[in-house]
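User: Fold this; tokens only.

Assistant: Input:
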Amino acid sequence: MTSLATHAARIPRLSRFGWLMGLYAENHARLARLFAPGDLAAGTYLSSIGDGLDLRLDVIEQHRYTTELRLTYALQDPLTGEPDPSAYLRLYHDARQLEATHCYIGRRWQDVIGMYPPPAEVIGHRMRMNTFLGKWLEYLAERGHGVATLRPVATGTAGYGGNEKNLAANA
């Protein structure tokens, strides 16, 4: 009995923050395998696999150590007109981390956790967002999205109005 208790005491425990950093690392690996976004120029890209539900990847900004991205199906929320689901992402090249900074899945973060949440609530919300992102990236890979299906969209034609097939034809 004492050897079991001693063995259990030696197993390190991972804090919620440590778990979150692990999610960031896993999501970086998933996105890098899927789209290699560090190599993409700023602009809009569509990934079409023939299922009628094209994926849109916006490379908002490329910096030396980070890339700002937005990932969405370009489906519109009927109440707000915003793409839903969508995720704003920050890719840290040097740390090999991918952080979902904002997700829109029917509601904004302020509606979910309030304007001035306690730190524990912020960490919990970030864990939920980044878990969602990891599952979404896995799903996209399973469906066949990837570098081979990604095409640039001509500037000025990238609306969220549901005309992704026309956009892909113009790319």
